[in-house]
Amino acid sequence: MRPPETRTPQPRRLIVALSGSTGPHYGVRLLEVLRAHTGIETHLILTAAARKTIEFEMGKDPNAVAALAHTVHDEKNIASAIASGTFVTEGMVVAPCSIKTLSAIANSFSDTLTIRAADVCLKERRRLVLVVRETPLHAGHLRLMLRATEAGAVILPPVPGFYHLPKTIAEIIDHTVVKILDLFGIHLDLIRRWDGLS
């Protein structure tokens, strides 16, 4: 008689990718919050363009950002663990998500690890959140968003709410981060949540 199999519980894992679009603040803050307030294992893809944007827009060392993640994956390494559906994750966030990245995801053009990992999330029916950072939008952008949504992605543009009465840019960024985390069942009160008018 075969002994019962013992299974090691899988850690909760989340893939975070930063494309080269403006607004790396969203992905960086997401990593900071996940590291400080959760036990979730983060797997980071930091594109070459994102590294440049982090330096220019945030004045931060990209290596310090990378250090926030548990594991950093080379964007060119299609053989990485996160390129397979057998590597179990909660899903993936691309923040910010450039239109180029959106286009590749919407069309399954898996030439980088970011796109392959996103495609894996879609095929495995895992949550994929795209923080698309572009404005204004033309019809081609909107069609790409529709196509990605039809495949199972969630389009979450960083459109700030003001009902929490933000006083700083950091509080505006946190509004979007809370919206992202809520989609993964991670409910952190980084902002004052709406509870109606008194």
In round numbers, the mean pLDDT is 96
Dominant shape = globular
Assign the structural class, choosing from mainly alpha, mainly beta, alpha/beta, alpha+beta, or little secondary structure: alpha/beta
Per CATH, the superfamily is: Flavin prenyltransferase-like
Could you tell me the strand content as a percent range?
15-25%
Q: Major β-sheet, in short?
A: 6 strands, parallel
Tally the beta strands. Answer: 6
Biggest sheet strand order reads 3-2-1-4-5-6
| Topology order in helix (H) and strand (E) letters | EHEHHEEHHEHEH
**Which CATH architecture?**
3-Layer(aba) Sandwich
- Provide the number of structural domains: 1
Q: Whole-number radius of gyration?
A: 17 Å
* CATH fold-level name: Rossmann fold
Q: Low-confidence parts, pLDDT < 50 over ≥5 residues?
A: none
The CATH class, by name, is: Alpha Beta
> If helices are DSSP runs of H or I spanning 4 or more residues, what is the number of helices?
7
Helix content: 25-40%
**Assembly annotation:** single chain
State the separation between the terminal residues, measured CA to CA: 66 Å
GO molecular function: carboxy-lyase activity; flavin prenyltransferase activity
Pfam family, one: Flavoprotein
EC number: 2.5.1.129
Enzyme class: transferase
